């Protein structure tokens, strides 16, 4: 009986010793590094190691508020950035009006110029583009910036803040292109009707529309006596 008791006690001691050692073994700690790496090591260990993570896991670990081990949510990328849309609208809007100015300056009396000037297609296209850019640039503070004074009149400071956006500047440029082309068209048609030279006035309407209109008025006033003389003596 004593031998049996001694053998059973030795067996219990032999089984309990590895369990006690296993419970006392330090558990490796896991920590995230700034570069998206995991550093593991035991508490009190002299050496640690770091292994780079995959990009998607590194983003999840380094991003605050995201649980570790969970893949980041997929966010669809925009087709075009707002600055790209504004730049493209600015460039293509300018290119679209140049053929009409070229025809009115180079060949004012040609049939193709008259047909192109009578067309409403450029104004419809510019109007739709302007409406789209205006939609993209519109914010709740737009009306407040436009009518900032107590008399519901625009103020310079509010307009300056509003035009700090590239999209707003692009929409304003398309607005100017449409208005300038319409003014140049009116100058051209008035010149054809009254047989007055309008090439210089049409050219000025492209970038300096008010100056182009004023130049056409001065040209018309100065050319009236010459037109009367030419009509009296049948001078072409």
Automatic annotation (TrEMBL):
Recorded superkingdom: Eukaryota
Residue intervals passing through the bilayer: 89-108, 120-138, 158-183
Family matches, as InterPro entries: ABA4-like
Keywords from the named record: Membrane, Transmembrane, Transmembrane helix
Name of the protein described by the UniProt record: Protein MAO HUZI 4, chloroplastic
């Amino acid at each position: 009986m004593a031998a049996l008791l001694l053998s059973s006690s030795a067996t219990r001691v032999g089984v309990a010793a590895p369990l006690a050692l296993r419970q006392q073994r330090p558990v490796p700690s896991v920590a995230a590094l700034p570069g998206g790496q995991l550093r593991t090591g035991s508490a009190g260990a002299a050496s640690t190691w770091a292994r780079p993570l995959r990009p998607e896991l590194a983003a999840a670990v380094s991003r605050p508020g995201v649980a570790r081990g969970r893949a980041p949510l997929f966010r669809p990328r925009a087709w075009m950035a707002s600055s790209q849309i504004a730049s493209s609208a600015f460039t293509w809007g300018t290119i679209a009006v140049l053929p009409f100015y070229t025809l009115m300056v180079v060949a004012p009396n040609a049939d193709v110029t008259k047909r192109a000037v009578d067309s409403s297609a450029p104004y419809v296209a510019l109007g739709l583009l302007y409406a789209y850019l205006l939609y993209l640039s519109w914010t709740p503070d737009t009306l407040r910036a436009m009518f900032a004074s107590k008399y519901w009149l625009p103020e310079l400071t509010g307009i300056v803040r509003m035009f700090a956006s590239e999209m707003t500047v692009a929409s304003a440029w398309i607005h100017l292109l449409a208005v300038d082309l319409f003014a140049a068209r009116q100058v051209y048609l008035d010149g054809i009707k009254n047989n007055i030279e309008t090439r210089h006035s049409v050219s000025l309407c492209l970038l300096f529309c008010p100056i182009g209109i004023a130049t056409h008025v001065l040209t018309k006033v100065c050319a009236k006596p010459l037109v009367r003389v030419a009509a009296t003596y049948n001078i072409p």
